[in-house]
Amino acid sequence: MELLAGALLERPPGPKYTSELRFAELAPQAPLPKPGTLAKWRQKLPDGFELALRAPDPCWQSPGGPLRPSRELEAGLGWLSEAADALQASMIVVSTSAAVTTGARDRERLRAYFARVPRTEGRLIVWRPTGLWEPETVQTLANTLSLVGGFDAVDDPAPDTDVLYTSLLAEGLRRSFSHALLLEVLDKLQSSSASRAYVTIESGQSFREARLLQALSEGRE
């Protein structure tokens, strides 16, 4: 299995990062950069470097609530399409909040929303919900909608899919990811049936931890 570990960043990584890692997830902040700016970001990165684009809130939120159709949401989806193309992103990650519930109405809204998310051949669309969603439910719905279902590789089992996406978030009592914990994550991923895994780390030491995980996966640690 090929593993690509990286950090969640607001801006593209610099030479020190790209000399160590081959993947990063970008989460641009408001005011959202124009596609031309994003294209310049892409040009500064090495060939073969992979980017995930995390959809900013305006790309899935609207004044009436999450996933509800509106002019603002249409504009957000338009930006998302242009931004992903400019960055030559390997994937778009939609990380919904607990405001998107497991109820039937929100499931229908998810179906309608992801039917409108821009699709390009070779680009993955990832759904990473938070809240009360059970891991099995996430994977079942993701499969129905032709998405990659994100999961927590610390607490949840690895789904039976060819491509895995997990985001490791340091919050609450978990402030960082130790060598031992990263080994457990790696073992879980490598024990799955997947051929490729993307791991985004969100912590105060995300670069160091992503570099360690990548080294462990390649037998360099």
Structural account:
The chain is an alpha/beta fold and 221 residues long. It has a single domain, classed as Protein of unknown function UPF0759 (TIM Barrel, Alpha-Beta Barrel), CATH 3.20.20. The protein is 35% helix and 20% strand. It contains 7 helices and 10 strands. It has helices at 15-20, 35-43, 71-87, 104-114, 135-144, 179-190, 206-217; strands at residues 2-9, 23-26, 50-54, 61-62, 65-66, 91-94, 124-127, 148-149, 163-169, 196-202. The strands form 2 sheets. It has an 8-stranded parallel sheet with strand order 8-7-6-3-2-1-10-9, with helices on one face. It has a two-stranded antiparallel sheet with strand order 4-5. The chain is globular and about 50 Å long. The mean pLDDT is 96.
The structural class is alpha/beta
Q: Count the helices. How many?
A: 7
Within CATH, the superfamily carries the name Protein of unknown function UPF0759
Percent in strands: 15-25%
Gross morphology is: globular
Give the CATH topology: TIM Barrel
Instruction: Provide the CATH top-level class.
Output: Alpha Beta
CATH-derived architecture: Alpha-Beta Barrel
- Cα distance spanning the termini: 17 Å
The strands making up the biggest β-sheet line up spatially as 8-7-6-3-2-1-10-9
Please tally the β strands and state the result. 10
Order of helices and strands: EHEHEEEHEHEHEEHEH
Helix content: 25-40%
